[in-house]
Amino acid sequence: MKNNKFTFFKYQYSLPKMFIISIILLLIYLFAGKVSLLKFIPQPWNRLLYMAITLVVAGFCAYFAKTSKVLEVRPKQGKLAILSTILVVILVLLYLGKVIGWVMIFNQGLTVTIICLATAIGAGFGEEFIFRNLLFNAFLGVFRNNKYSLALSSITISAIFGLMHLVNLTHQDWAATSQQVFYAFAIGLLFCVIHIWSNTMIVPALMHFLFDFSPVIKTATTVAVPWAGILIIFLPLLVVSLLWIVIYNRKVQAFE
């Protein structure tokens, strides 16, 4: 695979430096998450502070990631459009299920709306720019000599993204947290698809914000549901997203 196909490889970069910065910014982001739960800072000010910190983190990620683009020139999808259509259908169904939650938030008053908006914006932009931008580019550098560098980078950061949710064990049980780890991995792969497909960071960040914008985010705590429901929703999403990335990776490899 020619390295000049990836926009990131046009820049001078130091992988150790990128990973050290990634760890620092991730720790700051996790600290901001704790700030959002502080009781002595009244709501919604604790959530607004969290949003401010995470947006600053996102800005630093964008700077050190060098670029938000994945490819200089994108190959045509061809038959891959079938998988893209399936993903769009899943996305529509997934987000239609969110509409009731959005309405519930706005019906609970201004304070609740600000809390949910600030938390979802912080999580959406903070997490996307850490994982799908800075770490994504860093792992592209790690796997640059592998013909499946795009797929390996996507899988690696999605796995780390899922495991990051283990920090929620500090305020919720294992059953709920383990489910979060699984569906965060699946959603992470989906957001990788959106990042690669859109060739920008704004689209996945906005999609992440809309996904997190729900009444549950007000307490930052989830409860376990039957695994059957989780698997029915997120396993097809995981499989289709992974297939899309692998096939697209092969198309990029063959593209001249």
UniProtKB/TrEMBL annotation:
This is Membrane protease YdiL (CAAX protease family). Keywords: Hydrolase, Membrane, Protease, Transmembrane, Transmembrane helix. The keyword Chloroplast does not apply. One of its GO terms (biological process) is proteolysis. The keyword Membrane applies. The chain crosses the membrane at residues 20-41, 48-65, 77-97, 109-130, 150-169, 181-207, 227-248. Belongs to the UPF0177 family. Residues 112-213 form the CAAX prenyl protease 2/Lysostaphin resistance protein A-like domain.
